[in-house]
């Protein structure tokens, strides 16, 4: 199982709950405070989303308020994150600097700052940092994957603050629109970082409006230069009666719409509007599928497993992370043969009478049948677990509950005979 993602900076705090605690030392010039916002399980088995206070200066109240609003009214209200909420943990980290007015973006590139934290304290985790970038003018954000020495990568999502609304206290009504854009900008950037999605933005600068994409700028699930229907990445989502390329009157359909990656010509996107183009729209079906597939690269729905061994019956058990609504299908096999009576069950009872003497394999298969995914060539939505089992003969051959000379004589009488 891949070891996980999105900034798990909880370990930077010396005294936190057992779920997040790693009791690591922090830079002496700063202190941190962890706020657990949503904990569904062990950080090693979840995608851990952490909202960092960079960009908020000394305004801790605004930071905590925005973190709560982001997760409760933003991130977990967007599909597919709403359906797969159980696959995530959410937390915030408040960083206090010696200079209360100092923000990291004033002195250091925020990506480098986040990379240093994750690289220094979490070399075994894949992480996404949710970081604000202070700005007095409207802007966008940045998101992606940053390699650093170690055995994982750092996922980074930075959203620019729209206007100076962070420092307004109390919040004014005219900041609500700005906050919604700020919140949605984060969700858009998470699309880059977690889903490895490309921008679907069409060139809006006259100097680049007619430029065509350079080679190497089309390696995303949601952009393509192909106009042959059979070669389009998202062909499983295109109806046979949808024209290719697709005109704007098919705005509610998946097709092949001209313009993406800040180019107006030569490159196409799946839908007229989508979160990866305009942040006031939800993720389109193609981007949503890509996000679900990436989530399954990092998390298995088989959260835990254990075996109860009895005298004559052994029970195999699993505990599942379940989407809401639950689309997981469970099946149990012995030596590749599926047992229908155990279909959909989280446990499987195997009696010694079920198995011939010898070595066997018990296997559980968990498949997500979600309608969010139509094309899963790597079978990412199928997770399995196996147990080797040996059924050995017991010396109570006459099965009277006692091992004695009667069993020995049965053994001696049968010794040398061939089984039929």
Proportion of strand residues: 25-35%
Taking pLDDT < 50 over at least 5 consecutive residues as the criterion, the unreliable ranges are: 1-29, 100-108, 118-124, 134-154, 160-174, 205-210
- Helical percentage: 10-25%
Q: What is the makeup of the main sheet?
A: 6 strands, mixed
Query: In DSSP terms, counting alpha (H) and pi (I) runs of 4 or more, how many helices?
Result: 6
- SSE pattern: EEHEHHEEEHEEHEEEEEEEH
Average of per-residue pLDDT values:
74
Terminal-residue CA separation: 44 Å
Number of strands: 15
Strand line-up in the sheet with most strands: 1-3-2-4-6-5
Would you tell me the structural class of the helices and strands? alpha+beta
Shape: elongated
Gyration radius, rounded: 27 Å
Give an overview of the whole structure.
- With 420 residues, the chain is an alpha+beta fold.
- Helices cover 17% and strands 26% of the residues.
- The chain is built from 6 helices and 15 strands.
- Strands 1-3-2-4-6-5 form a 6-stranded mixed β-sheet, sandwiched between helices. The protein has a 4-stranded antiparallel β-sheet with strand order 12-11-14-15, with no helix packed on it. A 3-stranded antiparallel β-sheet has the order 9-10-13, with no helix packed on it.
- Helix 1 crosses helix 4.
- The longest helix is centred in the middle third of the chain and has 18 residues.
- It starts with 29 loop residues before the first strand and ends in a 6-residue tail after the last helix.
């Amino acid at each position: 199982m891949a070891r996980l993602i999105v900034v798990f900076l909880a370990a930077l705090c010396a005294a936190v709950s057992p779920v997040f605690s790693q009791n690591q030392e922090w830079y002496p010039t700063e202190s941190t405070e962890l706020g657990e916002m949503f904990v569904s399980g062990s950080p090693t088995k979840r995608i851990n989303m952490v909202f960092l206070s960079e960009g908020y200066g000394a305004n801790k109240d605004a930071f905590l308020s925005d973190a709560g609003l982001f997760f409760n009214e933003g991130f977990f209200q967007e599909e597919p994150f709403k359906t797969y909420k159980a696959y995530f943990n959410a937390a915030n980290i408040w960083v206090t600097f010696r200079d209360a007015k100092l923000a990291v973006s004033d002195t250091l590139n925020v990506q480098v700052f986040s990379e240093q934290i994750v690289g220094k304290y979490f070399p075994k985790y894949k992480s996404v940092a949710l970081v604000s970038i202070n700005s007095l003018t409207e802007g966008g954000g940045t998101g992606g994957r940053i390699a650093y020495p170690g055995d994982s990568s750092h996922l980074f999502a930075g959203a620019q603050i729209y206007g100076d609304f962070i420092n307004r206290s109390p919040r004014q009504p005219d900041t609500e629109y700005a906050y919604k854009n700020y919140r949605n900008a984060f969700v858009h950037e998470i699309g880059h970082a977690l889903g490895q999605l490309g921008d679907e933005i069409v060139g809006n600068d006259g100097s680049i409006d007619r430029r065509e994409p350079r080679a190497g700028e089309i390696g995303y699930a949601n952009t393509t230069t192909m106009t042959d229907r059979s070669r389009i990445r998202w062909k499983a989502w295109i109806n046979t009666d949808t024209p290719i390329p697709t005109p704007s009157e098919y705005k509610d359909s998946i097709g092949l719409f001209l313009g993406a990656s800040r180019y107006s010509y030569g490159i196409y996107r799946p839908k007229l509007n989508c979160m990866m183009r305009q942040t006031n729209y939800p993720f389109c079906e193609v981007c949503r599928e890509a996000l679900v597939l990436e989530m399954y690269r990092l998390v298995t729905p088989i959260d835990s497993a254990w075996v109860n061994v009895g005298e004559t019956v052994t029970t195999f058990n699993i505990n599942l992370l379940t989407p809401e609504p639950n689309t997981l299908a469970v099946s149990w096999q012995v030596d590749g043969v599926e047992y229908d009576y155990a279909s959909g069950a989280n446990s499987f009872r195997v009696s010694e009478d079920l198995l011939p003497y010898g070595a066997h394999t018990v296997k559980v298969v968990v498949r997500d049948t979600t309608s969010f995914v139509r094309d899963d060539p790597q079978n990412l939505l199928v997770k399995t677990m196996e147990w080797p089992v040996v059924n050995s003969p017991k010396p109570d051959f006459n099965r009277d509950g006692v091992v004695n000379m009667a069993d020995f004589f049965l053994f001696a009488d049968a010794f040398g005979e061939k089984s039929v």
